[in-house]
Specification:
This protein is an alpha+beta fold. It folds into 2 domains: 20-42 and 160-260, Zn peptidases (Aminopeptidase, 3-Layer(aba) Sandwich), CATH 3.40.630.10; 43-158, 2-Layer Sandwich (Alpha-Beta Plaits). The chain is built from 6 helices and 12 strands. It has helices spanning 67-85, 123-143, 165-179, 197-203, 217-225, 244-260; strands spanning 20-26, 33-35, 38-41, 43-52, 56-57, 92-100, 107-108, 111-120, 151-158, 161-163, 183-185, 207-213. The strands form 4 sheets. Strands 1-12-2-11 form a 4-stranded mixed sheet. α1 (67-85) packs antiparallel against α2 (123-143).
Length: 273
């Protein structure tokens, strides 16, 4: 929306807000909301990487350069970025979500395509992880005698979502007054990602993003009773099915309470809906 001229006075001319508020369902206890100052969601970068070999018949691998073996080596070596290059106090995730090569069981393909997703919690380590991915892929291609340089294509990029501290404190006070014990502070940032931050960065305004529960009370209760809350279906899982209640009411309350903490005569007071 920003790239399409959301705030451009000559295009969509959307008024520039004083503050930006955003929210998203999280796998939390039903009816609860969470906030956090500073980084709350990771930056995310997705790449498509094509590596090249020399195809041929599966019975004569010595006459080929096998891109499947090359790609497999890359997948394993990429895991060393997090395990051997990232300090223990930093957080990063490198996931190869897709690896495709060839169509026949007895034919060695001439290329393999990997799709890589990267999550980081700071701009410094974002750059270093991305540089590490390129360095490893190029080195493995050279070691495998790849006939061509690998092709890197950026699929998407999401910024680090970092909440303005003063703005977050104001929302926290309002949430505590309204939700009581159902409002909690997050200790660490989540590894999910959002493009919400782009709205604030584009106009240099403060922002705050928070999570509210999308869990079905019956599903939550079952998992809690069985001691398997770590297996609760999360966002984008094919089994993630938010409960209509209290998800809708909690989300509406959260956004209205946050908005009214900045505008209207009820600022700073408990809200009764």
């Amino acid at each position: 929306m920003v790239d399409d001229g959301l705030f451009d006075p000559k295009k969509h001319a959307c008024p520039v807000p004083d503050v930006l508020l955003g929210q998203h369902v999280f796998p939390l206890r039903p009816g609860s909301v969470v906030t956090k100052s500073g980084p709350i969601l990771a930056a995310a970068d997705s790449l498509r990487i094509t590596v090249y070999g020399q195809g041929g018949h599966g019975s004569m691998p010595h006459r080929c350069i096998d891109p499947v073996v090359l790609a497999s080596s890359i997948v394993l070596k990429l895991q060393t970025i997090v395990s051997r290059e990232i300090p223990p106090e930093e957080t990063a995730v490198v996931t190869v979500g897709s690896l495709k090569a060839g169509d026949a069981v007895n034919v060695i393909s001439d290329e393999a395509v990997l799709q890589v997703n990267i999550r980081t919690m700071s701009e410094e380590w974002r750059k270093r992880v991305l540089d590490g991915v390129q360095r490893i892929v190029k080195a493995e291609c050279e070691a495998a005698r790849s006939p061509r340089e690998p092709l890197f294509e950026k699929l998407n990029a999401f910024p680090l979502t970092s909440n303005d501290r003063e703005t977050t404190e104001k929302v926290r006070e309002a949430f505590t007054a309204h939700f009581g014990d159902e409002h909690a502070n997050m200790d660490t940032a989540a590894s999910g990602s959002e493009d919400f931050q782009n709205l604030a960065t584009a106009v240099n305004k403060p922002s705050v993003f928070w999570g509210w529960s999308g869990s079905d009370p019956r599903v939550w209760e079952k998992h809690q009773k069985e001691g398997i809350l770590n297996q609760l279906p999360v966002n984008h899982s094919p089994f993630f099915a938010p409960g209509i209640h209290p998800t809708i009411s909690t989300g509406i309350d959260a956004m209205v309470v946050a908005a009214l903490s900045f505008v209207g005569k009820n600022q700073g007071r408990e809200f009764d809906f």
